[in-house]
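re: the backbone from monday

yeah here it is again, tokenized this time
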């Protein structure tokens, strides 16, 4: 008997809630949810396609990037070696001929070339 009273009161409450909500509003909300679902599915498909395309482009570029990185690393070590040798040669020349390389104050007086960046 108590269960029947609870059931009857819950049915009464649910009917009251149904009367509070307009069925047209509910249908409109369902329609909007379906539209949003469709847009999200379209966006997901576009993003999946973009990810596939990006992965393909990365695979093509990564080989070039790694080979160019190796080339630049090799060039840097070669240039470091060259500059080390030049510094060594310069130090030997300066030790043998102290006046071979002028200091900063004499460089300015010796360099009489016009400055091409200054507007005339």
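seq for it, each position gets an aa:
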């Amino acid at each position: 008997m108590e269960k029947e009273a609870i059931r009857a009161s819950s049915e009464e409450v649910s009917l009251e809630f149904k009367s509070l909500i307009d069925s047209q509003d509910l249908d409109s909300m369902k329609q909007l949810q379906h539209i949003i679902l469709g847009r999200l599915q379209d966006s997901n498909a576009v993003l999946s396609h973009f990810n596939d395309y990006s992965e393909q482009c990365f695979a093509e570029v990564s080989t070039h990037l790694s080979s160019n990185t190796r080339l630049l690393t090799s060039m840097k070590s070669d240039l470091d070696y060259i500059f080390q040798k030049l510094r060594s040669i310069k130090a030997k020349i300066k030790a043998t001929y102290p006046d071979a390389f002028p200091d900063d104050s004499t460089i300015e007086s010796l360099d009489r070339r016009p400055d091409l960046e200054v507007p005339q």
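The CA atoms of residues 43 and 63 lie 31 Å apart. The mean pLDDT is 86.
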